[in-house]
Amino acid sequence: MSKISFLLGAAAGYVLGARAGRQRYEQIRSGAAKAWQSQPVQQQVATAKHAAKTKAAPAALDAVSTAASVAGDKMREGASKIKGDPTRDVPSGVAGDPQGPSTYPLGEGPTPA
Q1: 3-state class (DSSP) for residue 86
Q2: How far apart are CA 17 and CA 61, in angstroms?
């Protein structure tokens, strides 16, 4: 796989750096397209896609899930440390609040419907 990456990088560098004109550029582009559509390359692409679906995706999902869980725990921990400040709290806009308009520190008070 690293040889293919190197060859693709070398081809891209040559195409981008070539000063041979439009005709040579079109020749190189057509050759690259032909190589990309070849059976061996497409077999490797299919193998890489399959590996991404079966191995990488579940691992990424697990990593994201773990990170989200840790972030949620830290946010709940931080929210529990917040105390009300009458000079900065915003009046409640919760309909049907039995206590009437009031202020609530973060994480306390009725939940909007």
Answers
A1: coil
A2: 39
